[in-house]
Amino acid sequence: MNEYDAGHIPGAILIPNETIGGDAPKALPDYDQIILVYCRSGNRSKQASEKLASMGYKNVYEFGGINSWTGEIVTD
Q1: What is the dihedral of CA 22, 62, 45, 36, to 10 degrees?
Q2: CATH of the domain spanning 3-68, picked from 3.40.50.720, 3.40.50.970, 3.30.2380.10, 3.40.250.10
Q3: Count of CB atoms within 10 A of residue 47's CB?
Q4: Among 2, 4, 11, 75, which residue carries the largest CB count within 10 Å?
Q5: 65 strand-pairing partners
Q6: Residues 6 or more apart from 49 whose CB is under 8 A from it?
C-alpha cells in the first residue's frame, strides 16, 4: 500500500515528486491555480513545491507532512 492509499486529505490528487520534471503535470493545467503540496513528512513536498514553482506555477504552497495534519483523512 502506498502512502496516498494509507491516508490523504479529501480531494487531494497524487502527483509523485519523482514524476515532476520538464513537462507540466497533466492534472495541473492552470499555472495560476492554487496548489497545496504535502507528503508524509514534509521532505518531498518541499522538493515538489520548488520544482513546480520553477516550472512557472505561481500559487504553490507547501505545508509539510500529513503526519501533522489534524483534519480529515481519507483511506483507499
Answers
A1: -70
A2: 3.40.250.10
A3: 15
A4: 4
A5: 39
A6: 37, 60, 61, 62
Helices (H), 1-76: 3-6, 43-54
Nearest residue to 37 (alpha-carbon basis) of 6, 72, 13, 21: 13
Q: How far is it, in rounded angstroms, from Cα 53 to Cα 50?
A: 5
How confident is the model at residue 2, as a pLDDT?
Answer: 85
The mean pLDDT of 31-41, rounded to a whole number, is 95
**Where exactly are the structural domains of the chain?**
3-68
Q: Is the pLDDT of residue 1 over 60?
A: no
Per-residue pLDDT at 22: 83
Over range 34-51, report the average pLDDT: 94
What are residue 4's phi and psi, to 5 degrees? -60, -45
